[in-house]
Amino acid sequence: MASVSVVDVAPISGTESRQLLFAAKDAEGDTIALSPGSGIWSLVDGGDNLTLTADGIATGKQSGYANVRVTVDGVVSEIFRVAVQNDPNGDQNMINFDDLDTVDYNAGTPVSEEARLSDRYLNTLGIRFSSTPGYVAVVRLLPNDSPSPFNAISPVSADGLVTYANEDPIVITFFDPKNPTVKGGTKSLAFTSDKDGRATTNMVATAYDALGNVVDTEVVPDTGGAIITVESETANIHSVVITGADGNQDGVSFDDFAFGPVVPVE
């Protein structure tokens, strides 16, 4: 056997359980017939969102993503990301930015008007994206670096350039989509780092309530394609500050933002 890969998985809905499948091929590229029980499955990250048994039974827990892989006769698959759509209070919102105009992802690239993202989703989903100048950059990643090809978002410096320095974080803020002048909150926010995996420091996401109190903090090494999740028992996450690198090079872009319904908060 020359290779093994996870078969494409549709999003897991609610707390359903599903048998994950894999495909094995020989050196000539021909498929090898094996039973599902021939593989040993492992959960790389995203355990808050999904459970996975060694024989490949995946069960949804909460909305977000989980990275999995399978090993068959010593051959290990590439990491595969599974989406979970499960929010007891409403539909899950997901944004992947792939329909937006972009600029190059390299630090120092001027961010054009078309590639600036701020309140595009404010009146529909109740979410605003910002960095130092009041917007983030929608950047186009290399095919192998993108969690869901090809677009992601990156921070922007005060002079309007793509940057990855911690002094220019990405800030996510929620507002009531029915009345965007009213502060909003959600129970969780999950997103995925680019697959480059070269950031020099940990990625940090800090969630705050409407009064500025810390609700949750998640610190995750940049392993490439890592899933970062902040959550609360109540829908009181009003803003999330995200940093990904200590310097301007080898930083992190982020993709595939998933969050539950946004409700008004005081």
Give keywords.
single chain, about 270 residues, mainly beta, Immunoglobulin-like, Jelly Rolls, 2 domains, five-stranded mixed beta sheet, five-stranded antiparallel beta sheet, 1 helix, about 40% strand
Order of helices and strands: EEEEEEEEEEEEEEHEEEEEEEEEEEE
- The beta-strand count equals 26
Mean of all residue-level pLDDT scores: 90
Number of domains: 2
The helical percent reads under 10%
Which fold name corresponds to the CATH topology of the largest domain? Jelly Rolls
CATH architecture of the largest domain: Sandwich
Structural class: mainly beta
Terminal-residue CA separation: 59 Å
Shape: globular
Task: Give a quick account of the main beta sheet: strands, pairing sense, barrel closure.
Answer: 5 strands, mixed
Rg of Cα set = 19 Å
β-sheet strand percentage = 35-45%
Instruction: Report the total helices.
Output: 1
